[in-house]
Design goal:
The complex is a heterodimer. Chain A is mainly alpha-helical. Helices cover 74% and strands 0% of the residues of chain A. Chain A is globular, with a radius of gyration of 26 Å. Chain A starts with a helix and ends with a helix. By secondary structure, chain B is an all-alpha fold. Chain B contains 14 helices and no strands. Chain B is globular and about 70 Å long. The chains are: A mainly alpha, B mainly alpha.
Chain lengths: 309, 296
């Protein structure tokens, strides 16, 4: 094809359609309309609204409930100087990184590796138990761990201090444990799938060379499934950063503000203290944090993505 | 591969023949027992909270710790008097309506995205992928504000619509990938016979893709059934309260939590989704074989 012909084709796409390619039919739009309407109405419009409301003094009740106005950066100014906001950011990061990324990946990996070599009956029953904890509705999980850690609860008995109300003495630790308990199954499933995809020959070759199990694990298996581990961490981050139900149902962010991660802080500011505008600004900050963490992962995944192309 | 090459070149591995002198079967069995034991201990740690909830639900003197179960149903009766029956009906309404809406909308969109030529298809798919990772918590206040403006608050139907929306990005992705696997030849055959688009979708594609559609709808159902924050904010009418909020308000209502009835309540609330999960994994493993329909 000469350059002229190519240009002609680009200039007149309508007259030079290829017969073997699917053509755009206007009726297709009808098929997409309901989904587009729902996505636009309940995602795009709210996202736009969020960006706008974050810059207003909208209130749930009171003088600025009806006649709110644009207040520029005052919400963000308040946020930067709000000690409670920064303590929430710190709690959110600990919650996401420690009880989410680190603990869930560690236990998920441990369970996946143990399952590879354990007896089939134990492998299957332990797998089922861990998955049950994950399928259990979040509110039921919150209730279980709430009762568990009350004074006279099973957990208090197990650590030998039956009189302690652990949700008062170590509230953040308990909500983190509950989150690990609930989320580990997901990592276990993803990492098991990753481990199954590792060719057995590679491990056998290293074994014949006399490499110990730990050496094979750290030098062969884990490097091979590195992309799976990173994707798993990204998914945990996305799933944990917006988590509200578990903590709110167990502690309502308390005692005081000791378990008030950003989504809980946002909810309390917006619906308890009526500051919808400020609450939205907090949600925007949370979105930025989530975005930044995702960028780190995607940066880490770049070599794998490039190789995949 | 580079990691492996460096690994193979590290020469210190070659002079360790003692590994081969130990009978492999003995080593294997001993290791297997140790590994299985550790695995079992971890499993028991994970099991403990669930042992507690079952024990408390069937015990007349339930507490935060383990008691001797008395196999009484008195806690289940008490749970019903806490309003569990009505609340579970409300959960069922939210879950069914949102599942029907989300599945219907996603099937149409996913099919068009899988088969038809759509302008800006790539951008649309990337947008849905990004939205499926966006926690709905972040959009809570604008959605609430929108509902105030539209007068949609305190309506189970519109609450279901918000729940459906939170699932749609993910189900579109799931179903699009699923439809991509259904062979086109069957649809082409139906088109030659003169069937229209809707008829092909309904009579050819949907029956073939039933397992995928079921899995997508079960995921939506489980999400909506357990949803807490959206109904909490969007529907303040006590007679519309779903079970997730019912359990929560019973935890915070009294300083002394009634463990037995609430444990029974939690079990009544959790059983349906656990059964659904089991069913969906069976469908997933049931094998999606489209091979039989096409020759050559």
């Amino acid at each position: 094809m000469t350059v002229v012909e190519k240009l002609a084709e680009e200039a007149e796409p309508k007259t030079r359609r290829r017969a073997d390619r699917e053509r755009f039919r206007p009726s297709t739009l009808l098929w997409l309309t309901p989904a587009t309407a729902i996505l636009a109405g309940l995602f795009l419009v709210p996202i736009g609204y969020a960006i706008y409301l974050g810059f207003t003094n909208l209130q749930l009740l009171g003088p600025h409930a009806q006649s709110y106005n644009f207040t520029g950066l005052s919400n963000f100014d308040r946020m930067v100087h709000d000690a409670q906001f920064w303590s929430s950011v710190r709690l959110t990061l600990i919650f996401v990184i420690a009880s989410g990324i680190i603990a869930q990946t560690f236990f998920g990996m441990a369970l996946a590796l143990l399952a590879q070599r354990a007896f089939a009956a134990i492998r299957m029953s332990v797998g089922a138990i861990v998955i049950m904890a994950w399928v259990l509705p979040e509110i039921a999980c919150a209730f279980l761990w709430y009762s568990f850690s009350q004074s006279g609860g099973l957990l208090s008995h197990l650590i030998g201090r039956p009189g302690d109300d652990l949700l008062s003495t170590a509230p953040f630790l308990i909500v983190c444990l509950a989150n690990v308990w609930r989320g580990t199954a997901f990592s276990m499933l993803i990492l098991s799938a990753g481990l199954r995809a590792v060719p057995a020959e590679v491990d056998e070759a290293a074994q014949l060379e006399g490499a110990s199990y730990l050496r094979r694990l750290f030098r062969v298996t884990l490097p091979i499934i590195r992309p799976t581990i990173l994707v798993n961490m990204l998914l945990i981050t996305i799933g944990t950063i917006g988590d509200f139900t578990l903590i709110y149902a167990m502690t309502q962010g308390g005692p005081g503000t000791s378990t008030s991660i950003l989504p809980v802080f946002m909810y309390i500011e917006a619906f308890t203290y009526n500051a919808l505008g400020y609450g939205t600004a907090i949600a925007l900050a949370l979105m930025v944090i989530g975005f930044l963490i995702s960028v780190v992962y995607i940066h880490q995944l770049r070599p794998e993505l490039r190789r995949g192309q | 591969m580079s990691t492996l090459e460096t690994f193979a070149q590290s020469g210190d591995l070659l002079d360790k023949p003692e590994v081969l002198t130990i009978p492999p079967s003995f080593r294997g069995t001993r290791n297997k027992i140790i590994v299985s034991f550790i695995h079992m201990v971890l499993g028991i740690v994970f099991l403990l909270p669930m042992v507690w909830v079952v024990d408390a639900a069937f015990s007349a003197h339930a507490s935060g710790s383990l008691t001797r179960p008395s196999f009484t149903l008195v806690n289940f009766r008490a749970a019903m008097s806490l309003g569990a029956g009505r609340a579970i009906e409300n959960s069922l309404y939210l879950a069914i309506v949102s599942t029907v809406v989300a599945t219907f909308v996603s099937v149409l969109a996913a099919y068009a995205l899988s088969r038809r030529r759509v302008p800006l298809k790539g951008s649309f798919l990337v947008a849905t992928l990004m939205l499926s990772g966006l926690p709905i918590t972040l959009l809570l206040i604008p959605i609430y504000f929108l509902y105030v403006r539209l007068g949609w608050l305190n309506s189970p139907f519109y609450t279901s619509l918000a729940l459906a929306a939170s699932s749609v990005p993910f189900t579109i992705w799931l179903l699009k990938n699923f439809f991509d696997q259904v062979p086109k030849e069957l649809e082409e055959a139906a088109a030659i016979e003169g069937a229209g688009g809707v008829r092909i979708l309904w009579r050819v594609v949907v029956p073939l893709a039933t397992p995928g559609i079921l899995v997508a709808s079960i995921i939506t159902f489980i999400n909506s059934w357990g949803s807490f924050l959206l109904p909490l904010v969007l529907d303040a009418n006590p007679s519309n309260t779903p079970a997730a909020i019912g359990i929560y308000s019973n935890i915070v209502a009294n300083s002394q939590v009634s463990y037995g009835p609430l444990a029974a309540y939690a079990i009544l609330f959790s059983l349906p989704v656990m059964l659904l999960y089991l069913l969906s994994t069976r469908w997933l493993h049931g094998g999606f074989s489209f091979a039989g329909g096409v020759k050559g």
